[in-house]
Amino acid sequence: MKAFWYSVIRHIFNIITYGLFRMKVYGRERIPEKGAFIVAANHASYFDPPLLGTAMSTRLIHFMAKEELFKNPLMGRFLRYVHTFPVRRGHLDRKAIIEAMRVLRDGHVLGIYPEGTTQNSGKLGRFHEGMAAMALRAKAPILPAAITNSRTLPKKSGPVCVAFGELIMPEGDASNKDDVAALTEAVRNSVAALLDEYGGESR
Q1: Which of 11, 38, 83, 144 could be 165's S-S partner, Cβ–Cβ 3.0 to 4.6 Å?
Q2: Number of domains in the chain
Q3: How confident is the model at residue 88 (pLDDT cuts 50, 70, 90)?
Q4: What are the angstrom distances between the C-alpha of 13 and each of 47, 52, 133, 183?
């Protein structure tokens, strides 16, 4: 029954993203067909999760989302239903890290917005390093993704699209700050390049 209702929710999101917003998807062939990986995207709107989730039609994304969204009981229940779990921003949230590592260990897709929150400036924000540390610890590749022109939705300000970049393999050790910083920068540079190429928010 849960699978049925999840398929209904996904169908509704498909109607909104592809029908209403006329979203385009680029680089879908770069999405791994199996195995664990992290998808890391820019974050400009609350519409980003359904845009990214429907763009990745062949895999189910387990998103990390700020815990404030879970304070409303109905919203919290819905988010958990669609495989989203809370994380405390500005803290070392061990519970969220354990859940994220479980997702990767079980061979699933972990969705992270490395900027930590929505960016209203129209520019790509600083990337937090937790994403890179988890990738290095789990030895999980990172798939960069760029979501363009979502900031003003539901009012469109330009072509809405999701573009996936080349898979980035983690190299180094999670305990090495230089390795974590280098991986973080590589992912941010990839997302920025995708945004530049496909007409979204940039550096």
Answers
A1: 144
A2: 1
A3: confident
A4: 10, 10, 31, 32
